[in-house]
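# nightly structure sweep
# worker-07 picked up a monomer target from the shared queue
# config: single-sequence mode, recycle default, output format = structure tokens
# input follows
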Amino acid sequence: MHDEHGHGHHEHHDASSPEVRVEALEDLLVERGLADPERIDATIRRFEHDIGPMIGARLVAEAWADAGLRQRLLTDADAVVADMDIRGAEIEHIEVKANEPGVHNVVVCTLCSCYPWALLGLPPNWYKSPEYRARVVREPRAVLAEMGLELDPSTEVRIWDSSSETRFLVLPERPAGTEGWPAERLAELVTRDSMIGVAHAADPGGH
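# output follows
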């Protein structure tokens, strides 16, 4: 399971895959002068680096730093998002689920790829894959282990199935040793994968 984006690499993929179809359509539009590849790449970079997942990371970091905000986020995330003037695609209704000792949350969309774009940016390819969507429900510990996250056997794993009505965001546990850190620095520890629930927040030792 991994991410990749590129142009002109159809030979590396199953011809029936959505990625190949999208790339073929993009190539056709560019060839006919109906699309500018530089603008396409700029839009992708904007979603990957400017729109998200930094917006979600900021939200998590501020919740780590402010217990009152954290409680509000868990109770009524929609109100918090509105108060912070966060706007964009697929966040009409958001629910936030907090990881804590003994409980770990993971997000999936079993039917398609519902995902809070405005908070996390572009969904990774593995999130949209049939393998992840099916297996993480049946055998979450095995899937998480394959992605590098080993959980204690006593930890309860809760799976949240996103839909067109509700998108979920995981509030990862705040790493130890970050007491007194400002929200801006805390946000550097929050990764997209930790907000999906397939990873912990980054190690503060590297920051």
